[in-house]
Amino acid sequence: MATVLTLAGDGIGPEIMAQAINVLKRVNETFDLGLTLEEGLIGGVAIDATGEPLPEETLTRARAADAVLLGAVGGPKWDAIERSKRPERGLLKIRSALGLFANLRVAKLYPQLANASSIKPEIIKGLDLLIVRELTGGIYFGEPRGIRTLENGEQQGYNTMVYSTSEIERIGKVAFELAQTRTAASGNPARVCSVDKANVLEVTELWKQTITKMQQADYSDVALSHMYADNACMQLIRDPKQFDVMVTGNMFGDILSDEAAMLTGSIGMLPSASLDEAGKGMYEPCHGSAPDIAGQDKANPLATILSVAMMLRYTFKQEAAAQAIEQAVSDVLDDGLRTPDILDKTEAGLTQVGCQQMGEAVLAKL
Ligand code: NAI
Ligand code: MG
């Protein structure tokens, strides 16, 4: 029997998680998935209870679970704590301890929300792109790192960007295989764009060579292109529909995935997955704990609910259940229900709802 560990965290975390759990329980029954749900502590609530942002017990249970569903962590209450003990550190720690090297972020435009984006509707209409970001290597983890004092008394900060071929190959494999899966579902040709800065960084020259060799050897059915990171930033705004799957390293992926997320309007709509080599994963909304609206029943639970869909798709291989959730979300948007973050006040026929009402509406559609 498979287990899902839910970690609600801080701020709006408990509110959005309650709705996501209801959805997960419902599909668990209707699709007979046989999942067992458990709850655990992470972030500020874990600090308050145990003194640690990621208690050993949580990590042990996360390792034993087949998937983790996370809300969000952090908030002003814990901002005065020293950096290494803050809620956000718990999140970094669980990602690296579980070996979650592949971060998947979907930027998909729900046509009902075409006016919520700052980009012209015709440029983003039909947008559905996937960014595959390497999450446990590159400049965020490379050694040596630090701030040192030079002989002349000046200070110097330094980080190191490193990628070995095995690290590039395992993230490349995820990207190529997802491109193949997406083609099977959409009927569009499989495309991967690998983003690097091979013109100036040797480490990304190796990245480019390695991805190219993989495509030639094993993925000749996938069309591969390469793009420099700075150009990719421009192209995402100019013509985002030219992309299907983008694969890149940790830092470029951090920047590009936030940029891609914003094409679709609200951060309250965007789910993410972080996977290990066995397909086990942690699923979470892209947004944070939103302390400004916490406890007010204003948060949009759809990013977390859509993260449940990603979990069913990628870890449990339950495509029908995943699609049922995505369809239910689309249906409530069709009905004109909007949490404040996606409410277009100039559009007629919309109904403003709270977090709980939105979650209940999705349940009703299911
Ligand atoms: P944030 O994503 O929490 O909020 C940014 C803005 O988006 C706020 O105006 C917020 O109200 C809004 N927002 C976010 N999620 C929403 C939702 N579901 N529905 C409606 N509106 C939503 O980012 P911010 O303000 O930079 O950080 C707040 C706290 O969250 C900090 O302590 C930060 O460290 C933490 N954080 C945690 C993350 C995580 O747990 N994965 C990621 C990002 C930030
Ligand atoms: Mg980021």
UniProtKB/TrEMBL annotation:
<keyword id="KW-0460">Magnesium</keyword>
<dbReference type="InterPro" id="IPR019818">
    <property type="entry name" value="IsoCit/isopropylmalate_DH_CS"/>
</dbReference>
<feature type="binding site">
    <location>
        <position position="105"/>
    </location>
    <ligand>
        <name>substrate</name>
    </ligand>
</feature>
<feature type="site" description="Important for catalysis">
    <location>
        <position position="140"/>
    </location>
</feature>
<keyword id="KW-0100">Branched-chain amino acid biosynthesis</keyword>
<dbReference type="InterPro" id="IPR024084">
    <property type="entry name" value="IsoPropMal-DH-like_dom"/>
</dbReference>
<feature type="domain" description="Isopropylmalate dehydrogenase-like">
    <location>
        <begin position="3"/>
        <end position="362"/>
    </location>
</feature>
<feature type="binding site">
    <location>
        <position position="95"/>
    </location>
    <ligand>
        <name>substrate</name>
    </ligand>
</feature>
<feature type="binding site">
    <location>
        <begin position="288"/>
        <end position="300"/>
    </location>
    <ligand>
        <name>NAD(+)</name>
    </ligand>
</feature>
<keyword id="KW-0963">Cytoplasm</keyword>
<feature type="binding site">
    <location>
        <position position="230"/>
    </location>
    <ligand>
        <name>substrate</name>
    </ligand>
</feature>
<feature type="binding site">
    <location>
        <position position="133"/>
    </location>
    <ligand>
        <name>substrate</name>
    </ligand>
</feature>
<feature type="binding site">
    <location>
        <position position="258"/>
    </location>
    <ligand>
        <name>Mg(2+)</name>
    </ligand>
</feature>
<keyword id="KW-0464">Manganese</keyword>
<feature type="binding site">
    <location>
        <position position="254"/>
    </location>
    <ligand>
        <name>Mg(2+)</name>
    </ligand>
</feature>
<comment type="similarity">
    <text>Belongs to the isocitrate and isopropylmalate dehydrogenases family. LeuB type 1 subfamily.</text>
</comment>
<keyword id="KW-0560">Oxidoreductase</keyword>
<comment type="function">
    <text>Catalyzes the oxidation of 3-carboxy-2-hydroxy-4-methylpentanoate (3-isopropylmalate) to 3-carboxy-4-methyl-2-oxopentanoate. The product decarboxylates to 4-methyl-2 oxopentanoate.</text>
</comment>
<keyword id="KW-0432">Leucine biosynthesis</keyword>
<dbReference type="Pfam" id="PF00180">
    <property type="entry name" value="Iso_dh"/>
</dbReference>
<keyword id="KW-0028">Amino-acid biosynthesis</keyword>
<comment type="subunit">
    <text>Homodimer.</text>
</comment>
<comment type="pathway">
    <text>Amino-acid biosynthesis; L-leucine biosynthesis; L-leucine from 3-methyl-2-oxobutanoate: step 3/4.</text>
</comment>
<protein>
    <recommendedName>
        <fullName>3-isopropylmalate dehydrogenase</fullName>
        <ecNumber>1.1.1.85</ecNumber>
    </recommendedName>
</protein>
<keyword id="KW-0479">Metal-binding</keyword>
<dbReference type="InterPro" id="IPR004429">
    <property type="entry name" value="Isopropylmalate_DH"/>
</dbReference>
<keyword id="KW-0520">NAD</keyword>
<feature type="binding site">
    <location>
        <begin position="75"/>
        <end position="88"/>
    </location>
    <ligand>
        <name>NAD(+)</name>
    </ligand>
</feature>
<feature type="site" description="Important for catalysis">
    <location>
        <position position="197"/>
    </location>
</feature>
<feature type="binding site">
    <location>
        <position position="230"/>
    </location>
    <ligand>
        <name>Mg(2+)</name>
    </ligand>
</feature>
